[in-house]
Structures are given as structure tokens and as C-alpha cells.
Amino acid sequence: NSKLNPSEFEDILGNKSLLKQTTITGESDSRPTRSTMATVSYKLSIIDSLTSNIHLIENVSKERFFISECDIIGAIDICVQSMNRGECALINCDIRHCYGDMGCHEKQIPAISTNNSYRMLIELELHDWQTPPDIRKLSIDERLYWGDKKRHMGNFHYRRQDNSTSLQCYNGALRFLNTDLNPILISFDENQRLILKDRYIQVENNVA
Predict the structure, then answer these.
(1) 127 pLDDT above the threshold of 90
(2) CA distance 208 to 97
(3) Quick one: 118 and 182 in the same domain?
(4) What beta strand segments (E) does the chain contain?
(5) Residue 48: which domain range?
(6) Residue whose C-alpha is closest to residue 18's, from 157, 163, 122, 138
(7) CB hemisphere CA count around 91 (13 angstroms)
(8) Which among 130, 158, 192 is the end of a domain?
(9) Where do the TM regions start and end (predicted)?
(10) For the sheet containing 18-24, what is the strand order?
(11) Rounded to two decimals, what is the model's pTM?
(12) In the chain, what is the greatest distance between 2 CA atoms, to the nearest angstrom?
């Protein structure tokens, strides 16, 4: 990896709402594709464009997610697709690309308004990515992990009245929890199987 001189931000969407600047280059020609499993670390902050005051929201290490499946905030989901393995980037974006028009009250991120001077800053590193696993061969714990992660994201979007995104997350959770669709092909404990079935019913109720 080599450090770059400061450069202009890349306008990802062409409307200045999502800007990306590579700060450390990665392995050439190693960009991930949709539905691959990425591992990233990121530092998320909010900045007041008028005063330049910056407030750290969260610092997350080695987060795994499936690209383009709404497992993570949108700005990261979009920008990581233009990054190579090992690349670090600075993202400057509208709040809506992280938390929609509603902002996020529990994280003190204001809703979008005409007099809103805030933007989000994300220091993002793409550690690695890999092809999607065969769900049937995952451990029960791993299937529960992804089922819970996607269910929680579904709940998050549902609370924010984003029903189409929440449904996408719930359906993603069912993919890991449904043993009819993806039978268990490894040895397992019966109690774990029952937990998997219970979580499946929980998500089915969310969808209903």
C-alpha cells in the first residue's frame, strides 16, 4: 500500500451528495461485487459545515456484511464497491446516505431540513472480501449470527418507516434461518436447531 497526495474527492453519484477520497491505495483490480462478504473498519463522525466542528458517532472494527444487502449504512455499502482490498478512503456525504431523511435520534444525528448544515464523515478501510458462503455448510452459530444481524437491521428500518428496506433485511435473515430452503449439512446439536427454528418464526412474524 502507498499513501496518496491529497486529491479531489470522487463524486460517486454525480450530485455532490456522496464524495469519496482514496487515502491509501489497495491491491489493484480487487474490487468486491454485489453479495460478496466484506470486512471493514470505519470511524463515523458528524461535521457541522458552518463551524467545522466534528463529533465522533462510532468507531467500528472488523465489521462483516454482505454488499448491497442493507446490512450496513448506505454510504459504506455504496462506496465499498469502488474500493480495492486494503484501500482506505475518506467519505463525505449527506446524512441521508447514512440515516435517511429522519436522521437518528439515539445517535444525536438530526433529521434533514433546509437549515441543516451537517454532513457525515467516514474513515473507511476495506480489509478483505470473499465470495458468499454456502449457507448449508455454515455452523448454527454463524447462521444465527447473520439471521440476528439482518433481523436487527430490518427492525431498524421498520422503526424508520422504510418498509421496503426492512422487508429486504427480513428476507435476508430468513435465507440463513430457513432449514427447508437451506438444509443443515453439518453435524449439529438439536437444541441449536430448535433455536434456529425459533428465530425463523420470529422473523416470519416480522414479515407478516
Answers:
(1) yes
(2) 28
(3) no
(4) 10-11, 18-24, 37-48, 54-66, 88-93, 118-130
(5) 10-130
(6) 122
(7) 31
(8) 130
(9) none
(10) 10-11, 18-24, 88-93, 118-130, 37-48, 54-66
(11) 0.91
(12) 58
